[in-house]
Amino acid sequence: MINDNLAGKKIILGVTGGIAAYKSCLIIRSLVNSGAEVRVIMTPSALEFITPLTLSTLSGNPVIVNIFPEDQSNGVDMKTWHIEYAMWADLMIIAPCTTNTIAKLVNGFCDNALTTVVSALRCPLIVAPAADMDMYSNKIARSNFIKLESEVGAYIVEAEKGSLASGLSGIGRMADVNKIIDSAGMILSGYKKDLVGKNILVTAGPTYEDIDPVRFLGNRSSGKMGYSIAKAAYLRGANVTLISGPSSEVEYQEIKKISVRSANDMLKAVKANINDNDVLIMSAAVADFTPEKKAAGKIKKEDNLEIIKVKKTADILASVKKDKIKVVGFALETDNEIKNAEKKLKEKNIDMIVLNSVNEENPAFETDLNIITVIKKSGKSKAYPKASKFTVANFILDEVKESD
Ligand code: CTP
């Protein structure tokens, strides 16, 4: 997935002493590959897990560990490097961040190079904590997390569930690297956790309508747009449920995913979940037709093809109850785009429609980029520039939020 918000950005990566420090290599690689310039600061404990040489090679910049010059025998050319670093950065990420460093940050400590720079920072700060499960859920640690958000103003990318270095299994494993990179792009675009308390239901991907045990009717949707909406909504603080047709996209661990196959499965899943949500975003490319009946055995070459008779699927958007929920639909159009999108908005009786014009400039399928126009029930419309599907997801969420 491309991240169009990191190119040319100056990012400090702080690395503290936890086993997840080995993943800082992957963070640097992704940031550098996205066009960012990266400078690394390590705490002394981080050196127990990974070498400055590795991180310096990957970032292409010297790594800072000590506040003071180690060798002062030949005189000292000391600069206020910590202030220069703090003013240089567009963003600082601390990943992994131990609960010890968090305790220091919330108490304003400046006892090593990393905590000193944080105290002088002018840019946003992302913190990806990691610790063993009992340390992570420790009462004092949790109250420090709250202060880290409210007093230090950091954006926390919470740890995930999984196997831990101790052999235990629980919450404490540093957030997936892709999630940290996605949040970096979002924070640099000025987003915060502005959807806390919202319950958002997103559908994504194609549906497969089975013809026989080995064949189906499908479409070219990859699911990228819907997964990006689900991820961006989660990073902005929403509770997200994702109903997905067959797709190779990977959701974040915290997103509740319901996998479905056919349009009818998706209809049932939407109906079962709609009452628990404030917003429904139907980005799935639901099949319009399904075989009248699925052949019990494989249809053979010599069989009469007319055996595949189709019927219309139920229109999910048109049929769901909309009294307590805001509903967003998509319109995929190749001709008379605006007119067709307005017609769908009206006929399906929804609050907002996202028009995807499919043409040479915007292939829409199997690409990371998209161009959309949002049309609202009020008649208001806005055309957005071409951007990554992740950025487009945030445009859509902005529109959902605006019409609150
Ligand atoms: N949709 C739906 N149920 C269907 C088909 C589509 O809920 N059986 C939803 C899609 O998820 C999308 C919107 O309706 O949000 C428009 O889908 P689109 O394929 O553009 O339009 P259709 O209504 O299927 O009409 P057509 O294919 O004729 O353009």
If you had to describe this structure to a student in words, what would you say it looks like?
This protein has 404 residues and is of the alpha/beta class. The strands form 6 sheets. An 8-stranded mixed beta sheet has the order 13-12-9-14-17-18-20-21, sandwiched between helices. The chain has a 6-stranded parallel beta sheet with strand order 3-2-1-4-5-6, with helices on both faces. Helix 4 crosses helix 7. It is elongated. The site of cytidine-5'-triphosphate has 14 residues, from helix 11 and strand 17.
Provide a short characterization of the protein structure.
This protein is an alpha/beta fold.
Largest sheet: 8 strands, mixed
Quaternary state reads single chain
Distance between the termini: 30 Å
Instruction: Give the C-alpha Rg.
Output: 25 Å
Bound molecules: cytidine-5'-triphosphate
Mean pLDDT across all residues, rounded? Answer: 94
- Low-confidence parts lasting 5 or more residues at pLDDT below 50? none
- How do the strands line up in the largest sheet? 13-12-9-14-17-18-20-21
Would you spell out the secondary-structure blueprint of this structure?
Elements: E1 10-15, H1 24-33, E2 37-42, H2 52-59, E3 63-64, H3 81-88, E4 91-97, H4 99-106, H5 113-120, E5 125-129, H6 133-137, H7 139-150, E6 155-156, E7 160-163, E8 169-173, H8 177-188, E9 199-204, E10 209-210, E11 216-217, H9 224-235, E12 239-244, E13 256-259, H10 263-273, E14 279-282, E15 289-291, E16 310-312, H11 316-319, E17 326-333, H12 337-347, E18 352-357, E19 369-370, E20 372-376, E21 381-383, E22 387-388, H13 389-402
Parallel strand pairs: 1-2, 1-4, 2-3, 4-5, 5-6, 9-12, 9-14, 12-13, 14-17, 17-18
Antiparallel strand pairs: 7-8, 10-11, 15-16, 18-20, 19-22, 20-21
Helix pairs in contact: 1-2, 1-8, 3-5, 4-7, 9-13
The structure holds cytidine-5'-triphosphate.
